[in-house]
Write a structure and sequence with these properties.
The chain is of the alpha/beta class. The protein contains 21 helices and ten strands. The strands form two sheets. A five-stranded mixed beta sheet has the order 1-5-4-3-2. Strands 7-8-9-6-10 form a five-stranded parallel beta sheet, with helices on both faces. A hairpin with a 4-residue loop joins strand 4 and strand 5. The protein is globular and about 75 Å long. It starts with a helix and ends in a 5-residue tail after the last helix. Bound molecules: adenosine-5'-diphosphate and magnesium ion. Magnesium ion is lined by residues 205-206, 262. Residues 205-206, 262 line the site of magnesium ion.
């Protein structure tokens, strides 16, 4: 039975951003849903359901509807541009495997994005190709057959989604961002060699170094640019030993013009890999090649990494990225929502910016959660919804509370610097904040008293215990402290 397109559009929220290169294929009234497509898509869904988490299935796959099927091409309707990109970006392999399994060889996919045509007040569709070849598609994971690789298909391992254009700079990442741009303009020719970008998770390190790589491949296509994580490097090295191909491995790395190694902290304790990397580093450095690294801590603080390497890591520039401040969080939310074609009310932006603080990744998570809710549950974009999403993401997977989170929370509440809290100061308000932190750390983390003490200026376990008792006493005797503790407990979402 066929339905007309307007019916099909039930459930579609017209929030898709419409890029300039999209052609409007047909207006809704001409698109007839055929039953064959429905049949095929329901088989696909059954397969997909077995391969993704229930929540993912519900959010991303259930709302997709089948529209047409002919010549092995399945056309699906999706509720927005964002949705389409999300599926293509995150479930590309799954979609490809699915249609190949259900339809067979030669199967192809097409999407239609539903939106409201503001002139005719009718639903309309924008046609988008499905399963676009990803940039990384033809990048073979084990590349080190240097002789056979010509420049055209050199496996850079880069993801084209990371660029300088979509990286938003602020005070917390200014130095790293400027240095990255300088290196991207003149690889191997600045003082920033190696360039090491370090800082906590989700703060844009991978984004920045990949942006450098993408910039260089665009402007100097002849350079051999190679991105790899330290884990992949280790694996390749181990495999090369296993397969008796160490010299190929070594030659490959020495042929690179711009080498990016992500997350070098995972070299810790891997002596043979470090040794190999040390020699690679020296050869490249001496040949004036650019080396770019990231790490979760400053090179000088890396544990179990050879001193020779650490000293080399410090030859160039070590630039840190810190948690984004409020202004940067606002700017990132504004920009990312615009990129998704969504206009967020200012109170919603501000609420998220005030409450999601630790990393850009978390900000993105909150935004995507919000967009998914608006798109799928067709809820209005309100402050209430934002609160629901932010609350949900904080309790998600029962993520353990960290001592750093506690420090952030308490320092902000008492308007103190974290450094003061960690200091030896005995000033009442500082000591109270410190004791509060220790009390909360004991309650909400699994850290031992000793570990907790080490986070607060290396205090011993008896001091931590004493602090906890002090707060326990205050809770009974001091209403102000009692209230503050209750507030913290609520924020840490684990109140008993
Ligand atoms: P890290 O490597 O430091 O853990 P990532 O580079 O993977 O972090 O960043 C996490 C996410 O946040 C990515 O999606 C990235 O694109 C985004 N991101 C991080 N910093 C910024 C920024 N300043 N502007 C725009 N997006 C950012
Ligand atoms: Mg990273």
């Amino acid at each position: 039975m066929s339905k007309n397109a307007t019916d099909l559009n039930e459930g579609a929220t017209p929030i898709g951003a419409i890029g300039a290169d999209i052609n409007i294929a047909s207006n809704g009234n001409h698109t007839i849903k055929n039953s064959k497509s429905i049949d095929i898509w329901s088989k696909c869904l059954a397969f997909i359901k077995d391969n993704v988490a229930a929540q993912v299935f519900k959010i991303w796959f259930q709302p997709i509807q089948a529209l047409e099927y002919s010549n092995k091409e399945l056309t699906l309707s999706v509720p927005s541009q964002f949705y389409y990109e999300w599926i293509e970006e995150h479930y590309y392999d799954l979609m490809r495997a699915t249609i190949k399994k259900i339809i067979g060889e030669g199967a192809s996919l097409q999407y239609k994005i539903v939106f409201d045509d503001t002139l005719s007040h009718e639903k309309a569709y924008i046609k988008m190709p499905g399963l676009k070849k990803k940039a990384s598609e033809n990048q073979n994971h084990i590349p080190f057959e240097p002789v056979s690789i010509n420049k055209d298909n050199f496996p850079t391992n880069l993801n084209s989604r990371y660029s300088f254009d979509n990286f938003i700079a602020g005070e917390s990442n200014q130095l790293a961002c400027s240095a990255a741009k300088a290196v991207a303009e003149n690889p191997g020719k600045t003082r920033f060699n190696p360039l090491v970008i370090y800082g906590g998770p989700g703060l844009g390190k991978t984004h920045l170094i990949q942006a450098i790589g993408n910039h260089i491949t665009e402007n100097n296509p002849r350079l051999r640019v190679y991105y790899i994580t330290s884990d992949m490097f280790t694996n390749e090295f181990v495999n090369s030993i296993k397969d008796n191909k160490v010299s190929d491995f070594v030659n490959f790395y020495r042929s690179i013009d711009v080498l990016m190694v992500d997350d070098i902290q995972f070299f810790a304790g891997k002596e043979a890999t470090q040794n190999n990397f040390f020699h690679t580093f020296n050869v490249l450095y001496q040949a004036g090649k650019q080396i770019i690294l990231t790490s979760d801590k400053a090179p000088r603080e890396l544990a179990d990494v050879d001193d020779r390497l650490i000293s080399r890591f410090q030859w160039g520039l070590n630039a840190d990225v810190q948690s984004p401040d409020f202004e940067l969080r606002m700017a990132i939310l504004l920009r990312k929502s615009l990129d998704e074609g969504i206009e967020l009310p200012s109170d919603v932006i501000e609420y998220i910016a005030r409450n999601v603080k630790t990393s850009v990744r978390e900000l993105e998570g909150a935004l995507i959660g919000l967009i998914a809710k608006v798109t799928l549950d067709r809820k209005p974009m309100t402050l209430e919804l934002a609160k629901e999403v932010v609350y949900g993401s904080k309790t998600k997977d029962n993520q353990p509370v960290t001592i750093d989170e506690i420090k952030n929370l308490v320092s902000e509440y008492y308007k103190l610097n974290i450094k003061d809290i960690e200091s030896k100061s005995r000033k009442h308000e500082i000591a109270l904040a410190r004791q509060t932190c220790m009390y909360l750390a004991k309650k909400f983390t699994t850290s031992s008293l000793k570990t907790i003490g080490s986070h607060f200026g290396n205090r011993d376990h008896s001091t931590v215990l004493h602090s906890c008792q002090t707060i326990d006493n205050y809770i009974v005797t001091d209403k102000k402290v009692k209230n503050s503790i209750e507030t913290f407990m609520k924020q840490l979402k684990k109140e008993s």
